[in-house]
Amino acid sequence: MKSILAAMVCVFVLSGCAVFQSHEPLPTVDQVDLERYMGQWYVIANIPYFGERGNVAGRAIYRPREDGRMDDIYLYKKGDFDAPEKRLEGVAWVVDGDTNATWKVRFYWPFTFGYYIVALDEDYGWTLVGHPSRDYAWIMARTPRLDDALYQSLLDRFTALGYDASRLQKVPQFPEQIGQPGFQ
After folding, report:
1. Phi, psi of 102, deg, nearest 5
2. CATH number for the domain harbouring residue 162
3. How far is CA 173 from CA 43, 82, 85, 95, in A?
4. Is residue 41 part of a domain?
5. Where are the beta strands (DSSP E) in the chain?
6. The dihedral of CA 128, 137, 143, 147: what is its sign?
7. Is 155 helix (H, G, I), strand (E, B) or coil?
8. How far apart are the C-alpha atoms of 154 and 72, rounded to whole Å?
9. Which of 50, 52, 60, 99 has the fewest CB neighbours in a 10 Å radius?
10. Does residue 14 lie within any of the structural domains?
11. Cβ contact 116:106 at 8 Å
């Protein structure tokens, strides 16, 4: 219970910091087909923060719900592939119904977090998710590995959006990636 309370306090503090920073608006993609977006996404890289720092085998699963919202299930292992898989269940909902590219996500009531789909492969093979503060970013893909040229081009897209792409670190999806350069 103490760790949940501490996490909620951190989210509140971080949210407050984001409110007082001045950034250009974060553009999103023109349209997201939610049916195609649903399913499993591997977390290829992110800007590490307390909730995901040191996790391996991270992936998100989005599922539609009868109430019009979406399940947001985060699966991961803490630091080691031999560790037991952990599961964090949240709920997400579309904020911008014209594009379906801006969501709110909640893992712990009453705290919500903005989820902005800022780039999306036309075949829905990869996506870039960000936050207007530019302190949070994710590269996710339908497969657990991206080739280096594609990965670099996705980092370049984040840079063009005003992110410091050097802050993104790869999330190990395979045991041999732990401790390798560029990985958490």
Report:
1. -120, 125
2. 2.40.128.20
3. 8, 12, 13, 31
4. yes
5. 39-46, 55-64, 70-78, 85-94, 102-108, 111-120, 126-130, 137-141, 169-170
6. positive
7. helix
8. 23
9. 50
10. no
11. no
124 membership: H or E segment, kind and range: none
Q: pLDDT, tens digit, for every residue of 46-89?
A: 999 988 999 999 999 999 999 999 999 999 999 999 999 999 99
CA 170, 3, 86, 119 torsion: positive or negative?
Answer: negative
Residue 31, φ and ψ in degrees, nearest 5: -160, 140
Q: What is the pLDDT of residue 61?
A: 98
Within a domain: residue 24? Answer: no
Residue 76 lies in a domain: yes
The CA–CA distances, whole Å, from 63 to 39, 101, 137 equal 6, 16, 21
CA distance 123 to 8: 36
